[in-house]
Amino acid sequence: MLRIIFLLSLIFALSNASVQDFCVANLKRAETPAGYPCIRPIHVKAKDFVFSGLGTPGNTTNIISAAVTSGFTAQFPGLNGLGLSTARVDLPPKGVIPMHTHPGASEVLYVLDGYITAGFVSSANSVYVQTLKPGQINAGKSAAAAFVTFSSASPGLQILDFTLFANNLPTELVSATTFLDPTLVKKLKGVLGGTG
Ligand SMILES: *[C@@H]1O[C@H](CO)[C@@H](O)[C@H](O)[C@H]1NC(C)=O
User: Which residues make up the binding site for Mn(2+) (predicted)?
Assistant: First the structure.
């Protein structure tokens, strides 16, 4: 009898063993540190798990001659809560992705076409840089493209140049912390849309 009750309770436990496979983002609601609230499963469609945004090159007519097309939760709601995301990088010759950090994720870079010199500076300021064949300055003579994946659905992106020059942090403070001449700081603020 005890065994039967145990078995029954086990079956009951198994039948209730629910794993939440997904949490398609409700982008109409505010994002929280744990991601977006989920839309109700009854409203989830196969297309919520499909993203076609990485199939075409991004527009590289800009100051960095490069395009990053993101497949983060905001563009690809099916990723919400799944702990990964993706992006496409397009780099014509001379294109650069400025130094940046992704506060919420680690990153893998996979070169599709061309040559890309990519790397990072460690927290100990050691430099790890390498030219990758068919990953970010395009060192070749032809356009390069790469896919990147992140270990978070919301990797975040903080671009060093913007952090320093695209806001209203006063020129004298930027100058004091970067050791750059104030005239140069003002010039860079002008180029990147900063004030002060
Ligand atoms: C690319 O961006 C530039 C600068 O914003 C714009 O002038 C141009 O029309 C865009 N090209 C395409 C194909 O959207």
Answer: 100, 102, 107
